[in-house]
Each structure stands twice: as structure tokens, then as C-alpha cells.
């Protein structure tokens, strides 16, 4: 495959375009938001200052002159009236607001603050006159001065509020202008962003179209069976990875086709060896010897039973070439086989078959249980002193059938288990000899996986107390497999 000099990522191009558009759209909004927050802060502070100054007007214009009159008329005293406290409070508030006000509006407050000092001097004069017991007429003249000065301070406070209102109005106009300018700028930017987006989309579409068309052509060729079709390298990063994967898929398809042929060959070998195992000459000779022995002992019933069991065993093993048989026949096949083997190993072999008649009409792949039973006899029961019991069972679980063959024989060591699992994983029955043990298990495991198209075949559990071999397969009915499978009725 040719080397690509420079890669370009679709995602990278889209991200670049997105980032630019986001920046273009966000910056004006951000700036206008900052300006609005700044002006809103100034506006709020101006309102707060005006409210504070407005709260001083009743004190200056009404309360202070009225309190002075109460003192002069004798209704109240200097100490009880707290007139100095009010003067100081007003003075401090004016000083504080003056410090927070801009240069253009603080002049009125500065003059008002100085005038408050004059107002305090007049109160001092009233105090001194009262202490000196001067005539009330003189204090009334001072009271007129206090009223005039209070009115003057009130006027100055009004001037300050008017100036702040005017300043706030100008600020509101400026803010309105900023909002209008921002809206116009945002509209222009949106139009520009849409233009850039359309241009970028066309460029990206042209950038991707050609390699995608090449992918479509090669994929069509592969679908038609032309497995030597390959895709040339592309400069698009994402499509380059896809190109490599499609080419790899084409390579693997050839490999899988070869493997499929080999698996089919192995399956046929497994079936042939399974059939050969059923017609084992030693098994046949030993069974015939047992029949002869029973005949010589004139045990007519046993001869008939053994001969019938042997006949059923080979008839079901052959099944007229069928791959699938009812569970009832598989059960009969196992019964015949165990009947014959119990005649040979009467003292050491006991067995139980727990296969309900309710599932007898379901179909399974033939010769799945007999190799497991044979393995249990030769590698479990015979290896245990005193013999043992083999239990064959089946049950229906939902849409699946679960079978198990369990013995209480010698069991397998961890090393033997590992060796057997390794051979089963390789699924190569032709590499396992009967003498080495495990041929039947490996063979059945392979047939279950291939015929039922499932990743798992046999499940094996073994320890010193015995071995249990089980497997799970989906239920099959006669109608379900009649169309495309060979069955035995």
C-alpha cells in the first residue's frame, strides 16, 4: 500500500471550523455582556447614592430646624434632642457619598458638607445663648439663619440628585447604543459565519467524497466475491483507518474460507471416527462373547436382551445416515449400550438414566451421549476400585436442553484437566488417540460447536469424587429442521 505523505482529519477540520465560528459568535456577546454588567453596576451605584442623599433631605429640611425651635422654646434640651448626633450623621453620610461620586457631580456635595459645618456653628451659638440666658429674641434670629442654611443644604442635595439623574440618563443612552451596536455586529457575524460554514462544508464534502466512492466500489466487489479487490490509501485520517480495515477484512475472508473448508473436513473426519468408534471390533467381540456365554449357560432371556440391545445400538448408530434423531432414540441407544456394558462389568458398573419422556420428541444431533458414557466407563469407573455409578440425565430449561453424564469414578487430576481442555480448545479430534483418553470428549465438543453454531461445547467438572460432563443446546423440533437437515423419524 502506498505511503500517505500527509493526513487530514475530517474531525479536525470540522473542529477548526467550529472553534472559529464559536469564537466569532461568542466574543461580541461576551464584550457586550461585560459592558452591560459594568454599566448596570454604575447605574445601581448611582441609584443607591441618590436614595441615600434623598433620605437626608427630611432631616436637613425639617427635623434639624424643628429640633432647634424646640430647644429655643424650652420644650427640649440640647442633650435630649441629640441635634449634634443628627448633624454629625448627615455630615458623615455626605462625606461618604462624596467619596463614591465622580468628579463631575461631587461639587454640590462638597459645598453641602461645608455648609453643614456652618449649621453646626449656629447650633453652638444657640447653646451658648441659652447658657448665657440671653433673650429668646436673639435665638429666634439664629433660628432663622438655621432655617435658611438648612434650606440651602436641601437645595444642594437636590442639585446633586438632579446631576446624578442626568448622568444616569446619559449612561442609559450609552448602554442603549452599546446594545444596538452589539446587535448589529452580531447579525453581521452570524451572516459571515453562515457563509464560512457553507464554504467549509462544501470543501469538506469534496474532500471526503472521492475516497468514500472508492470504498463503495471495493465493498461492492467484495460482496460479489472478488476477494482480490483492495482500496488505495487516502489522506483522510478516519477513512484511512477504515481503508486498512476493509483490506484486512478481505484478507481474512480468504483465510476464513480456507478454514471453513478445513473445518468441514475435520467435521466429517470426526463423524467417521465416531461411527468407527461405535463399531469398535473389541466392543463387538466382547459383546458377542457375552452372548455366546449366556447361550451356553442357557440363559435365553439374557441372550435375547443382549442381542436386542446390540441390534438397537447399531441401528440407532447408523440411523439410515441421518444426522438428527429424537431424544427418545438417543435414550434407547444409551440404554442398549449400558445394558451391554453392565453385562461385561456386572460387579463394578451401575447406572441411572433420568431423561423424561416429555422431551422425547425433541431432536438432537445423534451420538452425543454415548461417547460421554463410554469415556465415563473406561476412564472413570474402571479406574476406581470397587466400581461406581454413571448417571445420565436431561432436562428442559426455557428454550434449551441440558444434558449431563456424571460418574463417581476416579476423576481427573488438574494436569489431566488442563491437557484435555487444551485439546478441546484446538478442536482437532484427529490428533487425539483413543488410548490417550479424551477422544470422545473432544469429538463431541467439536460436533456440538459446529452443528449448533455456538462458541461453547462441553462443560467438564472433575475432582477426586468423580467427573461430570454437561452441555447445553437449543431445542430442535422435527418441523424446525425438516427443511434443511437430514433427520431420522
Q: How does this structure look, described?
A:
There is one protein chain. The chain is of the alpha+beta class and 489 residues long. The protein has 2 domains: 10-202, Four Helix Bundle (Hemerythrin (Met), subunit A) (Up-down Bundle), CATH 1.20.120; 278-487, Histidine kinase-like ATPase, C-terminal domain (Heat Shock Protein 90, 2-Layer Sandwich). Helix content is 69%, strand content 9%. It has helices at residues 10-72, 78-81, 83-100, 107-132, 136-223, 237-278, 281-296, 300-318, 327-344, 370-381, 414-426, 439-452, 478-482, and strands at 324-326, 349-354, 363-365, 388-397, 400-407, 458-463, 466-474. The strands form 2 sheets. A 5-stranded mixed beta sheet has the order 2-4-5-7-6. A two-stranded antiparallel ribbon has the order 1-3. β4 (388-397) and β5 form a beta hairpin. Mean pLDDT is 78; it is low at 1-5 and 429-436.
Task: Describe, in short, the structure shown.
This is histidine kinase. The chain contains 13 helices and 7 strands.
Order of helices and strands: HHHHHHHHEHEEHEEHHEEH
Count of discrete structural domains: 2
Low-confidence stretches: 1-5, 429-436
Main sheet record: 5 strands, mixed
Please describe the structure with a list of short key phrases separated by commas or semicolons.
489 residues, alpha+beta, Four Helix Bundle (Hemerythrin (Met), subunit A), Heat Shock Protein 90, 2 domains, 5-stranded mixed sheet, two-stranded antiparallel ribbon, 13 helices, elongated, disordered N terminus, membrane, coiled coil, His_kinase_dom
